[in-house]
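in:
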């Protein structure tokens, strides 16, 4: 059985409960918490001192503080969590290529001193701090002492009051405190909206109903299609998309360019090797042709030599016959002359 959040009774006294009073009141409610299995203290009045001490880093619940009232940040459903993670990854990839800001997530809060005198402590689902913001955040800090440049909330809609908190109350607070852009991400696409602070200090819709493309003014070049919050294209798909290619997956683009350069170099080397092989083949063919010609010359020389030897042999034979005839003529007393 669900039990409504317990709150402290109203008192006519103008003084706020002391730390001792609050501790005592929480102890009075503890039996009811245990009896009904209710552990959240959403709606409980606590001082800011008690909030920072006991609730800001609560081990079981994520509480914000609204001028004395604890407000639990509810758990997201899968749809909103999916959009949140895709958007966060998109933002991180943008900042890898454009390191102009820092991101805080989920449990890092900041204190809002509002113009009407009220104070709240909010923990935006995403907070963005530009590098030129007057207040930086250190690596070991668990709260931000300045004002975020951008706040992003994944819509909490499990209860009407949670929906109203994101769409109305936080909008009013972020606008008043000077958050330059405020985004609400809604899986149902009913409350998705992107606000920017105009020169008059008020929020205005950055996209409107007739536009599909969102472009941030605080983060130059950061843009995306509103429909892609639901389609959630992969980095490999976005890197070929003109909307994203200038900033998405910069490391992939660098790696791809390096790969293409290596491929071009390899193709150039391969072409040079082929040309060298062709030249080598041509030289080999020329050498074989020269060798063949030399063999033919050698064969012709051998043939000429053979013919010369034959001619010499015939000449020797003719001389031998002539010598014989001369000898016979002399034998007969005839002068060969």
């Amino acid at each position: 059985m669900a039990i409504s959040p317990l709150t402290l009774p109203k008192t006519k006294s103008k003084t706020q409960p002391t730390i001792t009073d609050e501790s005592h009141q929480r102890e009075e409610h503890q039996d009811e918490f245990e009896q009904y299995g209710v552990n959240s203290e959403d709606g409980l009045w606590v001082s800011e001192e008690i909030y920072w001490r006991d609730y800001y880093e609560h081990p079981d619940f994520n509480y914000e503080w609204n001028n004395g009232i604890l407000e639990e940040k509810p758990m997201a459903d899968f749809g909103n969590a999916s959009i949140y993670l895709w958007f966060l990854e998109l933002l991180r990839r943008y900042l890898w290529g454009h390191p102009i800001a820092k991101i805080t997530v989920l449990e890092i809060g900041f204190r809002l001193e509002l113009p009407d005198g009220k104070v709240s402590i909010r923990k935006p689902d995403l907070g963005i701090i530009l590098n030129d913001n007057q207040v930086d955040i250190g690596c070991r800090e668990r709260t931000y002492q300045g004002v975020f440049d951008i706040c992003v909330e994944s819509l909490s809609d499990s209860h009407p009051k949670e929906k109203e908190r994101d769409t109305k109350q936080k909008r009013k607070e972020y606008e008043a405190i000077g958050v330059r852009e405020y985004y609400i991400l809604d899986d149902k696409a009913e409350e998705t909206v992107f606000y920017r602070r105009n020169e008059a200090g008020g929020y205005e819709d950055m996209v409107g109903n007739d536009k599909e493309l969102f472009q941030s003014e605080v983060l130059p070049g950061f843009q995306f299609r509103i429909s892609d919050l639901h389609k959630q294209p992969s980095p490999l798909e976005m890197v070929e998309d003109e909307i994203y290619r200038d900033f998405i997956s910069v490391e992939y683009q660098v790696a791809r360019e390096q790969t293409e350069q290596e491929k071009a170099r390899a193709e150039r080397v391969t072409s040079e090797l082929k040309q060298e092989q062709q030249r080598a083949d041509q030289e080999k063919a020329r050498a074989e042709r020269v060798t063949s010609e030399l063999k033919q010359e050698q064969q012709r020389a051998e043939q000429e030599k053979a013919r010369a030897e034959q001619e010499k042999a015939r000449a020797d034979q003719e001389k031998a016959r002539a010598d014989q005839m001369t000898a016979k003529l002399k034998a007969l007393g005839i002068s060969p002359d």
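note: The chain has seven helices and 13 strands.
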